[in-house]
Amino acid sequence: MQEGSGLRTPGSGPAASPKPGARSRVLGVLLVVFAVLTAAACRQDMHDAARYDALEASTFFADGQSARPLVANTVARGLLRQDEHLYAGRVNGQLTDTFPMPVTAEVMARGQERYNVFCAPCHGPTGMGDGMIVRRGFRAPPSYHEERLRTAPVGYYFDVMTNGFGAMQDYAAQVPVADRWAIAAYMRALQLSQRATINDVPADRRADLDRPVAAPEAQQ
Q: Are 192 and 127 in contact (CB under 8 A)?
């Protein structure tokens, strides 16, 4: 064959390079395979992550428990609770008859709202112990208006909400500290409402007592 003709006979020279399109397809297949294998490996790692389920036993710790107890003599940040008045309803170890914060209109409104949620189902809307659950057969609690409870210090109510009493469970987990005091303030208002006299009403508000009460449909 003449030199420079541009023709090559089989086996006379190096093999022809793959076309660009074929090279791209091969590379794409390799990338897909690599991605699939990588994803499968990650998914398996997540399934087999080293962890313990709640209350699961452990062979690593001597006591066999996976959950570790709190370090002795430590208190979580913000939970020191040194204020006995605020957190226990006591002063010098005795149940107090004072509030650890000012009782404002906002506190009373909050107390009423929380009372209706957590207390009224058993104790009733006025504290008589005739809530809806009682009407359906549950054990009736005592009335807030009986002498023993009417004269009890306000710290007593806070203590009962915090720790429970008799058939009543504690509400420490459901009702924050400030809300327990707000409820206690509203309970005091309920007690006063059943024994209040004209002298308990401020002089500049007594005229409001003579105003007619609008019908429910007129208030809407």
A: no
